[in-house]
Amino acid sequence: VARGTSDHAAIYLRYLIEIELGIPAGLAAPSVTTIYGAEVRWGGGLVIAVSQSGRSPDLVAVMEAATRSGATTITIANDPASPLAAAARHVIDCRAGEERAVAATKSYVAQLAAGVAFVAAVAGDTGLSAGLDSMPDVLDRTLATAAATVTDGAPIVDAFAGSERSIVLSRGFDFPTALETALKLKETGRLFAEGYSSADFSHGPVVLTEPGVPILAIRPDGRPGPAVDEAIEAARRAGSEPWVVGSANLAGGAGLAGGDPAKILRLPLPDDLPEPLSPMATILPGQLLAEAVSRRRGYDPDAPPGLRKVTLTR
Amino acid sequence: VARGTSDHAAIYLRYLIEIELGIPAGLAAPSVTTIYGAEVRWGGGLVIAVSQSGRSPDLVAVMEAATRSGATTITIANDPASPLAAAARHVIDCRAGEERAVAATKSYVAQLAAGVAFVAAVAGDTGLSAGLDSMPDVLDRTLATAAATVTDGAPIVDAFAGSERSIVLSRGFDFPTALETALKLKETGRLFAEGYSSADFSHGPVVLTEPGVPILAIRPDGRPGPAVDEAIEAARRAGSEPWVVGSANLAGGAGLAGGDPAKILRLPLPDDLPEPLSPMATILPGQLLAEAVSRRRGYDPDAPPGLRKVTLTR
C-alpha cells in the first residue's frame, strides 16, 4: 500500500517477497477502499504500507480497513509516530532522518533496506543480512563514483536536460529503479521521463525511440541482464544509443558491444553482492541525474513547484 | 497475468474482483517466474491470464507455473486454441473475431466484457448481467457519437497530433481506460502520452502540465467523479484546460464549471448503467483519437512501425 516514490519501494518489496519467500504479493489499489468502500477480505494475509511521511489519509484508510479485516499489518515509514504507523499492528522505522527536500531520496533507499531486513529475517539466512551490513560502504563508494560522472556540465546531464522526453529502462529488481529514476526526473526536472520494464518497452513504447530522446538503461549483472541488453539493442536500432548504469563487473555483452564506452557508468559494486541489494546503489546515479537536470533547467530540485511533501488525495 | 493492452484489461478485472467480490487481487510480475525461476505458492488461489493472441511465451510460462502450483487457472483470450489457453484449466473465449490491426482495440473491449461476465456469474445477480446485455446497443450509440466528434480535422485531434507530449487521466474503473488510451496514442501516434490515476498525478506528474501539453480526462459519473474533478482543476490552474470524456448525464460539477463546453464529449450512456460497465464505452473515444492522431501524423494506425502482434519477451 503506497503512492509515489514509496510505490516504487513497494514494487521492489513485491519482487523480494515473491522471489525470496515464494508468497504471492501485489500492489493495493487504494481507491477500492477509499472511493468504492469495498470490504476486501485481507484476513489471513499480510498487508504492508510504505510511506515517507506516514500521513497520506488514503493510505491510512486502507491500512485501517486491512487491520479491521484481520490481516497482519506492518507500516514501513520514516516516522513511527505517524497516523499510518498507528493504523498498523507493527511498525518498521526507516530512521532515515528528516527528508528535507519534497522529492524523497534517502528515505527511498532506507525503505528498500527496511524491506530487505524484513524479508531476510523471515527467510532465515540467505546472504541478504550479511550483504545488507556491507551496504553503507557500498553506497558511499557508489555515490562518490556516480557524483564524479553525473555532475553539472556532464554530457549525460546535457542530454537529459536538453530534451522534453526521455525513457528509463530496466527489469526485475531494478524495474522499480527505472520507475523511480523517471519519477525524480519528472518531479524535479519537469520533463516527460517514462520508466518501463524492458519487456513492456517492446510491447509498445519502443516506437517512441528516436535520436532526440535520451534513454537510460539500468543493466543489472544478474539474471535480467540479457533482457535489458535486448532493449538496449532495440533502442540502438531505433537511433538512440542508451546511457547505461551497470557495475564494474559489467561484461561487454550483446547490449554493450558496439556502444559508446563514454555512455557506460560502472558502479563499484562488490562481485558477491546479492542481486536484490543492488537497487539501493543503482538508484543513486538517477537521483544525482535528476538533481543536476533540475538545476540545469533552472529549477530548485528540493522544492519542485506544485508539489507538497504530504499529498492529500481522496 | 498479462502484458500491454491486455494488462489494462487485467487491471480493470482486478478492480472488478476486489470491488464486486471482495477478494484481494493483483497483477503478476512475469519476470519472477521467467527470469528468476521463483516457485510462487499460488495454490488455493485463482490465476487469470488475459491475452489477445494467447501466444506470448512468458505468459504461458507463468500460467504453467501457476497450474503446477495448484492454482485454479483461467485464460481469457481471443483464441481458445492458443498455447496460453492450453496452459490453463479453464478458458473464456472472447470471440471478438480476428484482430486485423497490430494495435488491439475490439479485443480489449471483449476482454472487459469477458471479465464482467465471469465476475457477474460468481457474484450472482448484481445488475451486471442485465447491464452487459444492453452493452451492444450502448456501444453502437457511443461509437456513433464519438466518431462524429473525434474525426480528422477536429480540434481535439489537432491538439494531440500537434504535441509530442500529452496526459490522460482518470480513476477507479476508468484508470485502465486512461492507461489504454495513452498506450494507443503512443503505439499508433508515436507521441509521449502518459496515463495516470488522478491521485498519482497529484503526487508528481502534475508538474508536467503546461499550456502546450494537451490533457484528456475520463470523468466517470460514478464515485471517482469528484477525484477526477480535482485533477481537472489542478491541470487548469497549471494552464492546460483538459478535454473531458463523460456521459450525457455529466453534471456541471466543480471540474467542469468554468471549462470550455466545446472540450467536453458527452457519451450517450444510460442513466442506470452500472459504473463497472462504462469502461467498455469510455475507451472508444480514445481509440478513435489514437487512430485519427496517427493518420494526422502520417502513420498507418493498423501497422505501427516496430511493433508485432505477438511480442516475444524473456
Word description of this protein:
Two copies of one chain form a homodimer. With 314 residues, chain A is an alpha/beta fold. Chain A is built from eleven helices and eight strands. Chain A has helices at 5-21, 30-34, 57-68, 83-86, 106-123, 128-149, 155-161, 175-189, 198-202, 225-237, 279-296, and strands at 46-51, 72-77, 90-93, 165-170, 192-197, 215-218, 243-247, 264-267. In chain A, the strands form two sheets. Chain A has a five-stranded parallel sheet, sandwiched between helices. The first copy, chain A, is globular and about 55 Å long. The two termini of chain A are 15 Å apart. The relative contact order of chain A is 0.14. At the A-B interface, helix 1, helix 2, helix 8, strand 5 and helix 9 of A face helix 1, helix 2, helix 8, strand 5 and helix 9 of B.
Descriptive key words:
globular; 3-stranded parallel sheet; homodimer; 8 strands; alpha/beta; 314 residues; 5-stranded parallel sheet
| Tally of helical runs of chain A | 11
Query: Helix share of residues of chain A?
Result: 40-55%
User: What is the general shape of chain A?
Assistant: globular
H and E string of chain A: HHEHEHEHHHEHEHEHEEH
Largest sheet: spatial strand order of chain A: 5-4-6-7-8
Major β-sheet annotation of chain A: 5 strands, parallel
C-alpha termini separation of chain A? 15 Å
Rg of chain A from C-alpha positions? 19 Å
Largest interface: A-B, 62 and 62 residues
Give the structure's gist in a few sentences.
2 copies of one chain form a homodimer. In chain A, 43% of the residues lie in helices and 13% in strands.
